[in-house]
Amino acid sequence: MKRKYLASATAVAASLGWAVPAHADAHDPVKQELAELRAQLSQMAERVESLEAELDAAKSQAATANTAAIQANETAVAARAVADEAAKKDDGTNIAFKGAPEIKGEGGWTFKPRGRLQYDMGFTSAPDATGASDGWGSEARRARLGVSGDMPGGFGYKFEVDFAGNDVAVTDALISYETGNAEISVGQFNNFQSLEELTSSLHTSFIERAAFTDAFGFERRVGAAAQFSAGDVLVQAGVFSDNMEDLSNKSWSTDGRVVYMPKAGDAQLHFGASVHYADLESGDTVRYRQRPLVHFTSERFVNTGNLPASSEFGFGLEGAVIAGPFHAVAEGYWQNVDMPVGMDDPTFFGGYAEVGYFLTAGDTRGYKGGKFDRTKPANPVGEGGAGSVQLNLRYDHLDLNDAGIFGGKQNGYFLSLVWKPTDYTMLLANYGVLDYDDAAFPAAGGDRNYSVDAFGIRAQIDF
Predict the structure, then answer these.
(1) What is the pTM of this model?
(2) Shared domain check, 444 and 309
């Protein structure tokens, strides 16, 4: 329509110009204005044609975009239909990663492979006159593989085998049942003696646990146990036979432990007590002894030798605090032996006190369920950080002298530096000086009071 108006205007102007008589040359200004008007109208016509061409192109692009949008919408609807159909067929299985793949299935099934490798090396140095074997040593301290998981109905399982030391030994082999705040376990697992013993070897602050835990024979045993938790209180109790490798025999034991673990502001507190009684098979003996800090030496500088016994009774106290980068922990344990008639019953003692501090910002020691747990670096390697670095000091005491038995006394002064690049890797360095009284090996002149140095490094991974 616009083109028609412009064409008409142009024609009118042209006709006006042509209708001017020849003598109108005297009126050149009028003719000039008409010529300018024709030029302007021609330019406007060209501009209108250009705009109409652009409008046509825009309409074409809009139509193309609309077609594409319709196709995209149809594709999205089809994809949603496929997803909905897939969701209907989903069996509920998913895989998470917690150091290793953890498979979770419909109905409460879970399955997770697990394992750990700890390789130790270092040296011990004892007076030459003792004749004790010392010097360099190394070993695969633990090399474990296993599985764990849950089953429908509140049941769980765990099975783990250790291949270290050229032997294949079952460590944990248990079935559990959880209902509400109670859990029942049957199989082979750690009985309830000591915070230090129940804390996994993956999460201890020194290369070996406190001396009394090994000296007094704390180990996994086959049995049945129950534990109940309510708020800040944890109660554990069980009846056990012996370690799977030592069965069968007529020995049995019972253990109980109570933990109170309140919070004080941001600090985690821990107070605990445990009791242990073992009834031994007739003719059995007990022996209490311990290595100097590291496990790769076979020498024990404190040793009671074999003692005839009908039963054991032990009692332990625990206390700990975790406040940001700082932690402190102390334990004491008394082990009484029921000797044959006519012999005095000895009571031996072991304990330790420890303090530790993280040198890296934001790190703290892990704690869960009445025991120390995994430390997770705030800034791990691989995510722009250097991991966590922790410094620990410990005094470790073991007294195996009592009632005419001279197994010796061991006083250890230990230092450890722990670097965790990630949640599941660790490098640990330990140094210890162990002072002995009434040691098992006499030095020059029959002297049984001397010191032994020990140094150990551990490289560790787990999943």
Answers:
(1) 0.80
(2) yes
